[in-house]
Design brief:
With 248 residues, the chain is α/β, with parallel strands linked by helices. Helices cover 45% and strands 17% of the residues. It contains nine helices and nine strands. It has a seven-stranded parallel β-sheet. Strands 5-6 form a two-stranded antiparallel sheet. α5 runs parallel beside α6. The longest helix is centred in the last third of the chain and has 17 residues. The protein is globular, with a radius of gyration of 18 Å. The model has no long low-confidence stretch (mean pLDDT 93).
Length: 248
Amino acid sequence: MKYHVCYLPGAMPETIRLAQVCEDLGYDCVWLPDQTFHRDPFVALAAIAQATRRIQIGLGVTTPYARHAVQVARAIATIDELSGGRAILGLGAGNKKMFLDKLGLPQDRAAMRIRETAIVTRRLLAGESVTWESPDLILRDVQLEFPARASLPIYVASRAPLMLSVGGEVADGVIAEALFTPGGIRYFLERIQQGAMAAGRNGAPIETVCWQVVNVSGDRDKAVEELRPWAAHIIGASSVEIAQRMGI
């Protein structure tokens, strides 16, 4: 088992210091999200890369609705270069209410868009010249103009069944948030396995990440109350199938 930590980037000195503390405490990876309108995570991760030595550095997660696959590929490859090969890329559909709606961006065809972004990004990291045309993504003979790490891990984050299957199909790892009842974990693993089998990847070493929001506090009752809105958001954003599998 590995232990990861994720937090919103605050003031840069504090963001860097927290990453250094996590490294000193033995955490395996530090993640920064690309959600809402806080400090840019790519820039923050680049700073963390130069201030740490061992800990992996994850973007958890960015969305193809707001960032083109080519921009994602060259940014994460640059962070990987700065960190000496410690970067991880996380892809997800994004926060609809608090991010995409405010930018006028529809959250449609999520599974298809994550799938093609993962495929295109992997090909770019491998040094290929990529031509791709779909309703959502166009590249015409695009190639990164610097060497990147072809094996840079790509993770898919979701609770939705099709997205989890896409993770099993194309990703090195899959991140699930708040599915941590016995039924929820079974559902999570089943959907990943279905995607892996459909792609002929049965038995592939796919990392599974249980992503849980926590509130560290000396006052348990207050901490529970502060997490109620988040729990309501997770339940409200989940389909009937997911809620039932979680036992809700």
